[in-house]
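pls design
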């Protein structure tokens, strides 16, 4: 399996520190949780829920220098063989290419675990996320509206697999 941790030059050719992607460890569970809950405030996860996911998913967290800027989830194949990749970047760090790096790192992980298709999940209200997924070749296959909620989670599948 490839090891996350790409060390690409900063997008745009700037001289600042590059994005560092790490597999989540005991020491970084709270960083992953912080990004997740800022990006998806309507469905926050408690620390024990993140630890539970750590046991069955691949979780990565991304830094620029000492600052946490994003995180990603790669879910192992489900019963139908679908592998799910979700990249998240804090709003104040978006549009600098970090989402692309996190997503591509997640795609490498997803391909290494096998499966028959790659999916992602985006909140309908998250226009940045939806546009990003559509531009990366995903197409909507399902919607899930949590009880009492008005903002569905949209599942999208990579079209050419
Ligand atoms: C989807 C998400 C991860 C994208 O993160 P991001 O860091 O903004 O992504 P990128 O910077 O790589 O790309 C976003 C845009 O910035 C542009 N961009 C990239 N580098 C840039 C730069 N240096 N300067 C200006 N624009 C840049 C990209 O071309 C892209 O433009 P487009 O959307 O018009 O095509 C982020 O919006 C997010 O966290 N959304 C919520 C979570 C979510 O829905 N995830 C599901 C998708 S897997």
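designed seq:
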């Amino acid at each position: 399996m490839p090891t996350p941790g790409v060390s690409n030059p900063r997008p745009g050719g700037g001289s600042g520190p590059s994005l560092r992607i790490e597999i989540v460890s005991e020491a970084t569970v709270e960083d992953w949780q912080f990004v997740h809950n800022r990006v998806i405030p309507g469905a926050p996860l408690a620390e024990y829920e993140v630890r539970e996911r750590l046991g069955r998913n691949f979780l990565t967290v991304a830094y620029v220098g000492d600052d946490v800027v994003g995180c990603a989830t790669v879910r192992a194949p489900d019963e139908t063989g679908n592998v799910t990749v979700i990249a998240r970047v804090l709003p104040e760090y978006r549009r600098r290419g970090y989402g692309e790096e996190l997503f591509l790192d997640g795609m490498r992980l997803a391909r290494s675990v096998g499966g028959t298709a790659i999916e992602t999940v985006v909140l309908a209200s998250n226009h940045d996320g939806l546009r990003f997924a559509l531009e990366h070749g995903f197409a909507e296959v399902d919607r899930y509206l949590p009880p009492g909620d008005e903002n569905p989670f949209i599942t999208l599948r990579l079209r050419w697999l």
